[in-house]
Amino acid sequence: MAMTTIAVLGAGKIGEALLSGLLSAGRRPEDLLFTERYAQRAAELTERYGVRAVDTATAATDADVLVVAVKPQDIEVLLDTLATAVTPGTLVVSLAAGLPTALYERRLPAGTPVVRVMPNTPMLVGEAMSAISAGTHAGPEHLAVVEDLLSAVGKVVRVPERQQDAVTALSGSGPAYFFFLVEAMIDAGILLGLPRDVATQLIIQSAVGAAVMLRDSGEHPVALREAVTSPGGTTIAAVRELENHRVRAALLSAIEAAALRSAELGRAHD
């Protein structure tokens, strides 16, 4: 598909990150549009990126690809506008958590291709993990377009839409779990007498190094953990406490709760 103009509907953190990534990947400012409800922020983004701010109706008529980056609670008002403004063949890409492609297909003109995406906040630093799913009218060519767009800000995988709630719980919410763990580890360092800045530097670099090892070594996480766990040593003593406090079970329950909440968000718009 020869897609030329892309409009990002909702220029919050994720929307701005996508605009920035597309520009860094070589897209021309004149081939991008965005919508933003606050005039001052719209002006700031236009000055920063050279991309034109428009209203939703203009975006719907002028763009070949509409990227929906609003919060789920704002989707109804947006769809009311899009329903009468979207032109035939426009590709709609939804970044709104929990919202199924069927919602868009029900409200937009018949045959509108919709691709559902679950990104995450590392998009802000070009390291997103995004999972994409095709709606009823979206084909391989539409998925290829979305992969090309999102590759500008991270990695992309394809999954059946029925797996999107699990994706939301794992990678969509996933960064928050890592931040929570890092916060607790920094507090532990302070408890043990380290200055906060030293504890923070130690833990953040350890997290970065561990992530690179997971990505690049090809080793299973268990093998990497066992390599640090000497018999009778400090690490196994810590692991025992983690197991005694059921940290593994707590993580399983937390991720399951996130998946259930994602499903609830989708059902709220049935």
From TrEMBL:
Q: Where does NADP(+) bind?
A: 69-72
EC numbers: 1.5.1.2
Write down what this protein is called. Pyrroline-5-carboxylate reductase
Show which residues constitute the signal peptide: none
- Ranges where the Pyrroline-5-carboxylate reductase dimerisation domain occurs: 161-265
Which PANTHER family does the record match to this protein? PYRROLINE-5-CARBOXYLATE REDUCTASE, PYRROLINE-5-CARBOXYLATE REDUCTASE 3
User: What's the catalysed reaction?
Assistant: L-proline + NADP(+) = (S)-1-pyrroline-5-carboxylate + NADPH + 2 H(+); L-proline + NAD(+) = (S)-1-pyrroline-5-carboxylate + NADH + 2 H(+)
Localization (cell): Cytoplasm
Q: What does this protein do?
A: Catalyzes the reduction of 1-pyrroline-5-carboxylate (PCA) to L-proline.
What is the enzyme's main class? oxidoreductase
Q: Name one GO cellular component term.
A: cytoplasm
InterPro entries the UniProt entry points to = 6-PGluconate_DH-like_C_sf, NAD(P)-bd_dom_sf, P5C_Rdtase_cat_N, P5CR-like_CS, P5CR_dimer, Pyrroline-COOH_reductase
Report the residue ranges that make up the Pyrroline-5-carboxylate reductase catalytic N-terminal domain in this protein. 5-98
Q: Does the keyword Chaperone apply?
A: no
Q: Which family does it belong to?
A: Belongs to the pyrroline-5-carboxylate reductase family.
What superkingdom does the record give?
A: Bacteria
Chloroplast found in the keyword field = no
User: Pathway, per Swiss-Prot/TrEMBL?
Assistant: Amino-acid biosynthesis; L-proline biosynthesis; L-proline from L-glutamate 5-semialdehyde: step 1/1
Gene Ontology MF terms in the entry: pyrroline-5-carboxylate reductase activity
